[in-house]
Design brief:
The complex is a heterodimer of chains A (about 675) and B (about 170). Chain A is of the alpha+beta class. Chain A folds into 4 domains: about 180 residues, Up-down Bundle (Four Helix Bundle (Hemerythrin (Met), subunit A)); about 240 residues, no CATH class; about 130 residues, no CATH class; about 110 residues, no CATH class. Chain B is elongated. The chains are: A alpha+beta (about 675), B mainly alpha (about 170).
Chain lengths: ~675, ~170
């Protein structure tokens, strides 16, 4: 019964989405607002209906209805309730429902906004979002139905179908296979929803961009409307990436947080274009430039959102053959192609209307530096895109599978990321319009000299790695420039308004949250860069098999193997947990408990490290193996990860900065409407 | 007799604990785990997706690490072991494709596209810069009028922002 309600609700939402998209297009082309309103109501219906479907699926997961194929594949009797709920996004079909539900939530939120100022956008925003929802629902309803039941044929085969096929009997397993153990982690509970939220919320600015292209309102209006949407999308995507890194560090047991895995890169690519977009829209708003470029960036971002989902959901990453056999892979491919080509055609149609209102006055102006920033972000995108795509091309052309792993990305992205850091140090001191390199040089000579001094000090105190010296020099430059910007701004206000310096700083940031939120984000980035440089350039590791009482020494740390216990837990795990004593410079600093959990239901192990964390470094111990009888000897892999916690601290500052930048201002248009005289006085 | 033996063992224990004959250290197999991992780190699990061999937890990878250990014990060097794995399982075991044939594309294409982007950008700069009028833009004039250019810019931006309703 519940499954029927859930499935029926999905089908109904699909039909309503198709109707809504058609009604919106018809209403817009025939100038019939009643059709557009009807489409808007259709869009507002999608969220409650998909909520019903999602709740039905959650109910089935919690009830342990193993006659439903999806439930049997991602839950088991021993899993706690909260994990059964989060199993909704633990498998393919459930995650597609979840994606659609979030998309519908954002579409509904967009539809309830005040539309009186830009009513002509409405039908096209509805159309684009409903087409996207409809596409995902086609996948769910026709190919990846999470409500399909299990059936057994007379010759013993298992099949999944919503309704009983002829010659089959219902199949009701007594237990499920359980969620992939790697996903049974708090980080994994939050990480996918954050990524999905980032993905779906980027659809809204894209929808407004398409609306602007169709209607010909190619001024900065669509950008102003979607500024906060874009920042929120970017916030969620950033949060998803950071949480994903933390999850990898805690669960995957390889001492790192980012492995340049294609699945990671799939989420990183829309973030890159989204970041480039966030910078370049500022130029359109301030100077009326880069209109065509901004359209290209938002179209690319949308295409990469769908492409990212395609990469992770179509099986294409395991092999091109898996993709060809996958039912949804070719559909994804088709959808990306059609939406991309349609968007590009619209863009070309409006190309002349999107010409810049101003010229670039100087190669050292802020506009020029932002363009360079865009080039570097797009450069990283090209590296990532090509790195993910090349193994597929190689397999297709030569039949030979190849791996494009971290060394390729690190060598290619490193210099581009260095260039971005340099721009982060230079651009805040640049000005819009005409300027010269002398003016720019004069603005930044002090922080540049100080950063150079730091590099010299680092060199004299024993840092000889060129990459580290360049990296830390750039980090110092950005830090000094950012602090200098805050200081100059606060001091200027302090002098002019005779305010307390702290109050000046607070009011300054409050009056231009976008700029100072941006600077806080820059501080987050440099903190993260510190951590990345630390772990990438100075990580050390060793491995050894120890008897009880024996020790491993790594840098200033010594670890002594104390004991190992193995037992079965109530929730269906076999846990092997070692106890090791850790010493730093010969002094005891505590015990660590690296362990390996074997999940009986999923027949899979998870390695959980024991970590001693300080701001200076992490001492990270993995239990690699042990002697089964008597547990006398065990093998440990030990990592020393300098500065890695700056990555997480920087991540928090980064998110805080994004929230400051996205925090709503008072609606100044409303304020002006209430007090028209004040505006007149100001203009006079 | 039993008491004498116990006392003897106790005495020996005390003597060894006061004057240890050796320092307890990790057993060092030949070759060491670190030597094995140094090579395994550069190879990818031939059956799993995108997992370096040194951290792959599967039984198969454990055996492959054992193969590396055996080859090292036989005196093979790093290049020989990598060649052996490539011959057995194909190029996919290498962390990056070997630079030959079609694989050149993976290394050549990104820098070419980025350089092309840089050239296009530079030409944009040049063509736009050529169109600049001699007169200074309004923003610049405003700035020059002020004693402190930064204060002037800051105040100007905040003032314009308040006026334009730029939220």
């Amino acid at each position: 019964m519940i499954e029927n309600v859930g499935y029926f609700s999905l089908v109904l939402t699909l039909l309503i989405s198709i109707y809504g998209a058609g009604a919106a297009a018809y209403g817009a082309s025939q100038k019939r607002m009643e059709w557009v309103e009807s489409a808007r109501h259709a869009m507002m219906l999608t969220w409650p209906l998909l909520t019903l479907s999602s709740l039905a699926l959650i109910a089935l997961l919690v009830m342990g209805r193993y006659d439903i194929g999806f439930v049997a594949s991602v839950t088991s009797n021993t899993m706690p309730v909260y994990l059964k709920i989060t199993a909704l996004w633990g498998g393919q079909s459930g995650s597609l429902v979840f994606w659609s539900w979030l998309m519908a939530a954002f579409a509904t939120a967009a539809s309830v906004r005040k539309w009186d100022r830009d009513r002509e956008f409405l039908p096209w925003v509805i159309g684009v979002t409903l087409v996207t929802i409809a596409f995902f629902l086609v996948l769910v309803v026709l190919f990846e139905n999470p409500f399909a039941r299990l059936w057994q044929t007379l010759d013993g085969r298992q099949i999944q179908a919503m309704f009983q096929p002829e010659g089959t009997l219902p199949l009701i397993p007594i237990d499920g296979r359980g969620l992939n153990p790697l996903l049974r982690h708090p980080g994994m509970i939050i990480h996918p929803p954050m990524l999905y939220l980032g993905f779906v919320s980027f659809v809204i600015p894209y929808a407004f961009a398409i609306a602007a292209l169709v209607t010909g309102r190619t001024d900065a209006r669509w950008i102003r409307i979607t500024r906060r949407w874009t920042l929120i999308a970017w916030l969620f995507l950033s949060l998803g990436l950071i949480l994903g890194g933390r999850w990898a560090y805690d669960v995957l047991g390889w001492g790192g947080y980012w492995g340049w895995d294609p699945v990671e890169i799939a989420a990183f690519m829309p973030w890159l274009t989204g970041t480039a977009f966030l910078h370049s829209v500022v130029i359109q708003e301030k100077r009326g430039m880069l209109k065509q470029w901004n359209m290209i960036l938002i179209i690319l971002t949308y295409a990469l959102v769908i492409f990212g989902t395609f990469l992770t959901r179509s099986g294409v990453l395991s092999s091109v053959h898996a993709f060809a056999e996958s039912e949804i892979g070719p559909l994804f491919f088709l959808f990306i192609g059609v939406t991309f080509l349609t968007s590009v055609s619209l863009l070309l149609h409006r190309w002349k209307d999107l010409k810049s209102e101003n010229h670039l006055d100087s190669m050292f102006s802020r506009e020029a530096l932002f363009l360079l920033n865009n080039l570097l972000f797009l450069g990283i995108l090209i590296v990532c895109f090509w790195g993910v795509l090349f193994p597929l091309i190689s397999e297709l052309v030569s039949g030979q599978k190849v791996t494009v792993g971290p060394p390729f990305y690190e060598r290619s992205v490193g210099p581009l990321a260095g260039g971005l850091l340099l721009l982060m140090g230079v651009a805040p001191l640049s000005v819009y319009g005409r300027t010269s390199w002398k003016r720019l040089g004069w603005s930044m000579w002090k922080p540049a000299v100080l950063a150079l001094l730091l590099v010299v000090v680092l060199f004299l105190t024993g840092t000889t790695s060129i990459a580290a010296l360049i990296g830390y020099g750039l980090v110092a430059l950005v830090a000094l420039v950012t602090i200098y910007e805050f200081w100059r701004g606060a001091l200027a206000r302090h002098r002019r308004h005779d305010e307390n310096l702290l109050l000046s700083l607070w009011r300054l940031a409050g009056r231009n949250r976008r700029r100072y939120g941006g600077y806080i984000i820059h501080i987050g980035v440099i903190l993260m860069a510190l951590g990345i440089l630390g772990i990438e350039l100075f990580q050390t590791e060793t491995q050894g098999t120890l008897a009880r009482g024996e020790q491993i020494t790594l840098g200033r740390y010594t670890m002594i193997y104390d004991s190992l216990a193995i037992w079965d837990t109530a929730d269906g795990r076999n846990m092997a947990r070692a106890v090791v004593d850790v010493y730093k410079d010969g002094k005891p600093v505590g015990q660590l408990y690296p362990r390996r959990d074997y999940y009986y239901d999923a027949q899979q192990s998870v390695t959980l490290p024991g970590v001693r964390s300080t701001l200076e470094d992490d001492f990270y111990v993995i239990l690699v193996g042990w002697e089964p009888i008597g547990a006398q000897g065990a093998t440990f892999k030990v990592y020393h990860n300098p500065l890695v916690n700056f990555v997480w601290a920087g991540g928090l500052v980064f998110i805080l900065g994004t929230m400051v930048a996205a925090w709503p201002d008072r609606d100044l248009e409303v304020i002006r409407r209430k007090a028209p005289d004040r505006g007149a006085v100001v203009r006079a | 007799m039993r008491i004498k033996l116990s006392l003897g063992i106790l005495l020996l224990n005390i003597i060894f604990s006061i004057f240890p004959l050796y320092r307890i250290e990790a057993q060092e197999p030949t070759p060491s785990d670190d030597e094995v991992n140094a090579i395994a780190k550069q190879l990818y699990c031939p059956v799993c997706e995108n997992i370096p061999l040194d951290v792959c937890p599967t039984q198969a990878c454990e055996q492959w690490r054992g193969t590396i250990r055996e080859k090292l014990a036989l005196g093979w060097d790093e290049a020989q072991i990598k060649e052996y794995f490539v011959a057995q399982y194909g190029d996919r075991v290498l962390a990056t494709p070997p630079a030959r044939g079609l694989n050149w594309l993976v290394y050549v294409l990104p820098p070419v596209v980025i350089l092309a982007g840089a050239v296009v950008l530079f030409r944009f700069f040049r063509s736009w810069s050529a169109k600049i009028d001699v007169e200074e833009p309004a923003l610049e004039i405003q700035r020059e009028l002020s004693h402190d250019p930064y204060v002037a810019r800051l105040e100007e931006e905040l003032r314009r922002r308040d006026q334009s309703g730029d939220v």
